[in-house]
User: Fold this.
Amino acid sequence: MRALGVLLVLLLTAPLVSAHLPPGYKLRVAAQVGEYELRVVLVPAKPVVNQSFEVVVGAVNARTKEPFSGVVLVNGTPARRFSMAFYEVNLSIGETGRYTVPVELVEGHKRLGLNLSFEVVEQSAGARLLLPAIILLVLTAVLGAVWLLRGRR
Amino acid sequence: MEMEGVMPGIPGSLLIAGAVLLLLLTFGIVEYVERRRPAELGWRYDLLRFAPLRRALESRLFQPLLQVPVVGLFFLIIAAGLFGVQQADRNIATVLTWVVWWALIVFFILFAGKVWCTICPWNAVSDWLRRRTLWRRVEDERLFTLNLRWPRRLKNIYLATLLFLVLTWLELGFGVTTSPAMTAYLGLLILAMAVVPAVLFEGKPFCRYACLVGRISGLYAMFSPLELRSRSRDVCRRCRGKDCHRGNERGYPCPTFERLDTMDANTYCILCTECVKSCRHRNVSLNLRPFAADLFSLRRPRKDEAYLSLVMLSMTSFHGITMTPQWFSWNLKLQEVLGVSYRVAFTIMMLLVLAAFPAVYYGICVLSKLAAGGGVEVSRIFINYAYPILPIALFYHLAHNTMHFFREGQKLLPVLSDPFGWGWNLFGTAGTSPEPLLSFTAIWYLQVFFILAGHVFSILVASRVARLTFPEQRAAFRSLLPQLGVLVGYSAFSLWLIAQPMVMRTAM
Assistant:
């Protein structure tokens, strides 16, 4: 009964709590250059000041998911490889909005380029809590049913 | 030269040396074993002779004290996965789950069997909900459960096998290992899967029949040098209460429905130590024993376990394949031929590998029957000879995880200081890039050692299984020959896999 109570309290207070959690940031980007798909990830800048972020761009083959193995030029200069498929972009963003970075993929004589445009949008904590809330709801329903049925058995 | 995120495979010279050793060991062991009577692997050393350890295990506080910190870490993972930065190597959810836990759990099993189940957070939370207390013994009637009977049709481990396949698909096809949020969702989903059966059914049917981690570790734990058993079977036979099974005021009934008088393998024991508490005769021992003791004795081979063993071998190999550069070109070719997307091609290839291993193995079992001159059904050969595959799967898993843990494990240090990737520096280690724990050369030798060790054990177990399956020694030896071929093939394939460059888990 106590467990059920705790779950119910959690479930009822989740929307209130999530409204007070700091928002996350999500990128909207769907760029493809040649056969390569570009992904963008936000990394919090250190130290975190005014929600400032650094940007890394990932390039993978859209069909094979193989990471791009050539050189990536960002703003005309070679980007440092951040991890296997990601390259650092010398750009700090401080707020939501639309950003554009010229990116070129160079592999041998092949040169593919585009102005990579992406949008940073706020994502409320509630959106990230949707699936956990569903799981919590199902658990509460099951525990509630068990509690009711136990009394009758 | 190392490219960030890609680990080189073992060098060609080591691959060839490993392959030569593989063949030499095969012939040497078979020659040695076949000339001798099967040796008894009877020695045991009971750790509960140490009074402090026995007292600790008899205390009801023992398990919760271990579980509480692990449950704390589990909820930290969930929180970091949901709210932290969504980048695999900067979030503790992905690093702790996939680089540390998933890699180390196989080492845990190798040396300590089912110890993970003792501290498992999913098991802990479902137990606490069911009992509504952290450690006290609550009367059975007051447990928060409907005590329904688990359906008879599900009293096998096919459900766990299916969940293992689903996890493999999610892990490799959906990239769960590179997504902190999806890692958190998966953790919560498994928690729900553990809690719901615990409050609906009697005992812990999820642990016994459906937990993919528990069932895989269950089969691997047959190899482990640690076992919980009755000290004397005679005492068990004379015992009327069967408190280990039914429970009493000191301990809960065995959650996985085991009885000490019949338990002869580690597979289904979850080391909850309830039987240590409840046995009035103090007839429970926690033994050190020779490696692979359960495999050498093989008392009750089962079809569902045989299938899981084959699935484990095929999926651990498939896991390795998907990290090789060849994988990308094979996948692309399949996409071009069939005109399908990456994920569909991935699923087709996974199903092909899943079907290929058992199909080849079945063919070998038919050959074994023919070589032995009949007498034993193919289905029996199929089931019994599936157990010698386990050491190969276990040690390939170890070899593979060695690379992951010793080259990526150090990433835990920076994320410990900044678990959410929010720019914290709790212990002064944030932003550091510590050196990997071992050099490539050390890892390569370890990997080859593991593959060869797994091969040696699989050959030894196979010769024992041959004698257990075929009463006549000549027939046993003949049936063994095709199986040796397949074991050499599997081990050689494992060597080839570790010779390929691998893409790491936190690379993307």
